[in-house]
Amino acid sequence: MVLGGGRFSFDATMLSCHATSVLGAGFQQSVATVRAGALANFADVGKQVGLDVRRVMRDAGLDWELLSEPDRRVPTDAVAKVLETAAIRANCQTLGLRMAEARRLSDFGAVSLLIAHQPSLRDALESIVRYRHLLNEALAMSVEEADDLAILREELVLEGHGTARQAYELAIGTMYRMFGALLGPRWRPYGIGFTHSPPADLSVHRRLFGCDVRFNNDFNGIVFWRQSLDLPNPAADPAMAEYARKYVEAFAPPRPEPTPVEVLKTIHLLMPVGRASIPQVANWLRVSVRTLQRRLSADGKDFSDLLNGARRDLALRYLQSSDLSATEIARLLGYGQLSSFTRWFKDEFGVAPSNWPRRRESA
Fold first, then answer.
1. 3-state secondary structure of 348
2. What is the three-class DSSP state of 151?
3. Measuring CA to CA, how many Å separate 320 from each of 76, 160, 213, 336?
4. Cα separations in angstroms, 239 against 121, 125, 198
């Protein structure tokens, strides 16, 4: 098995599962939140790596009691900050992945019952995409099928984080574990991709993932055999799945129109494949361009500003957490020419991307 070599790439093919706008009525705040359950086993892993967990949480402004109240909503940015701070203080680049190793399907809360009783992995993924706002409002997901392979891509829309290694490895590691729980030994993925650079020690990645893991990749996600999508779930119970669906929608009904947060998440998904224009974003969200513009205007937002903000966030993330060249970053941000990217970057940050200090994370 080879880890860290090359990159997975794919064409912008037809997408089978859309990141549709399904924000629940109870989750329309401007600050994206996540279930406190995202920090499940944070204390245990923190102690294993010699971390003062209480102090890390206190410094991030988070209540220690959150660890025993998994359904409480917490700002996603605060959770990402806790994970990154903890990894730096413990000098442990794999803290998020270590947390993912112990994840169970039940850690998804109320949605876990719905997922567990879906008839196939495809149906389970559609449920996850549809109700992901109940888990993490900053999470964008898509499932794309091409030839014999399927690609699950995950993006996190975070404020003020040039790097989010721990949050990404936790999210993707948790999804990997969930697929294994649904399919058992039949779950044999093709590969894992991370946009950030590899850690000095790959032993945890080898231990968790039974496949090729590539860093400095074009996207964050899991590549697996397309046929896995339709493998039956032997534990599925249609009656229980219907009960779980009604229960979930009782407190989180789907919302028909896209919010600015959903638009921004869609931009993050489509930009690396050169499809982040307003017609393509509107098509992805299954609304007309006029409806999308009207909805954004009602919230005091403009599509071009959201697009530029996403481009800024991704540019800094690529520069600070990966070894991608300026030419590769330009392509992922939708620029056909390096010169165009350089001009935009200078206008935004005052220096050329080649002069931007690349932060090196501790090993």
1. helix
2. strand
3. 20, 12, 20, 22
4. 18, 19, 44
Cα Rg for the chain, rounded, in angstroms?
Answer: 20
Q: In sequence order, what are the beta bridge partners of 142? A: 153
**Per residue in 72-92, pLDDT tens?**
999 999 999 999 999 999 999
pLDDT exceeds cutoff 50 at 363: no
- How far, in Å, CA of 73 to CA of 295, rounded? 25
Phi then psi for 307, rounded to 5 degrees? -60, -45
Q: Give the whole-angstrom CA distance, residue 181 versus residue 265.
A: 27
pLDDT for position 162: 60
User: Cα–chain-centroid distance for residue 81?
Assistant: 15
Integer Cα distance of 261 and 105 in angstroms: 26
Whether 212 and 1 have beta carbons less than 8 Å apart is answered as yes
Question: Residue 150's beta-bridge partner residues?
Answer: 145, 224
Give the angle 133-139-144 at the CA atoms, nearest 5°: 105
Distance CA 279, CA 291 (A): 11
pLDDT more than 90, % of the chain: 66
- Name, in order, each residue with C-beta under 8 angstroms of 27's C-beta and a sequence gap of 6 or more: 33, 73, 133, 134, 137, 252
Task: Report DSSP letters for 171-235, one per residue.
Answer: HHHHHHHHHHHHHGGG---SEEE-SSPPPS--HHHHHH-SSEEESS-SSSEEEEEGGGGG-B-TT
The tokens for 360 are 């090196």
Mean pLDDT of 154-176: 87
* Tens-digit pLDDT profile for residues 44-53: 999 999 999 9
Residues in Cβ contact with 249 at an 8 Å cutoff, skipping those fewer than 6 apart: none
The token duo for 49 is: 């790596």
Closest C-alpha among 7, 292, 255 to residue 134: 255
Neighbours of 260 (CB within 10 A): 18
- pLDDT band for 255, please (50, 70, 90 cuts): low
CA distance 277 to 254: 25
